[in-house]
Amino acid sequence: MIKNMPLWNLLFKYGRSDDPEHPTELCILDWQLMRVASPALDVLFFLFLSSDGELRKQYYTKLIDEYYDSLSSFLRELGSDPEVLLPFPILLEHLRKLSGFVLLIAIWLLATNMKESDDVPDFSNIDSEDALVTMISVVPKRGYLQRIRELVSDMIEFDYPFSKLVDQ
Predict the structure, then answer these.
(1) CA separation, residue 56 to residues 26, 49, 98 (Å)
(2) Residues 34-85: pLDDT tens digits?
(3) Among 10, 53, 113, 137, who pairs with 150 as Cys (CB 3.0-4.6 Å)?
(4) For the chain, how many structural domains are there in total?
(5) Is residue 14 included in any domain, yes or no?
(6) In the record, which residues are listed under signal peptide (predicted)?
C-alpha cells in the first residue's frame, strides 16, 4: 500500500457544538515521504510514538481491530477486497515482523522529539561524523527512559520478537 511517513503531521477538525472537544474529521498533511510499504509500519509508529504505555495496555488490541475495520471499510468503498489485499492475520504478522525496526527508530525519534527546544540539535552546523554522533547522543532527561521502558515492555507483552532485530 502507499504509505506516508511520519504519521504525526495531522490536522484535526472540530465541528460539533454538542461535543467540541472531539474531532469530527482528520486530514494527513505532509505527503513528501510517500512510499509503498505495509500499513503495519504506520500503525506501529503511530501507536508506539504517539501514545503511552497506559493507553496501549488498555486499548492496543481494540485499536488494531478498529484500524483494520476502518481500513477494510475504506478498501471496500474503493472496490477492493481487504481479505485479498491484506487479510487480518497478515496484518498481525507484519506488526510482529516490523516491530524490531520500529523499536530501533523509536529509540532515536523519541530522544529527538522529547528534547527541550534549546537542546534540539542544529544539524546545519555539523562538520563531522563525530559531531553528529555527539549531537544525537544527548538523551532528554524528562520522561524519555520511562517511554522507552514502556515501549519495550509493551512489545514484549504483545509477543513482538526482539531476536531478529539485526535481520530487519
Answers:
(1) 21, 11, 17
(2) 677 889 988 998 899 888 899 999 999 999 999 999 999 999 999 999 999 9
(3) 53
(4) 2
(5) yes
(6) none
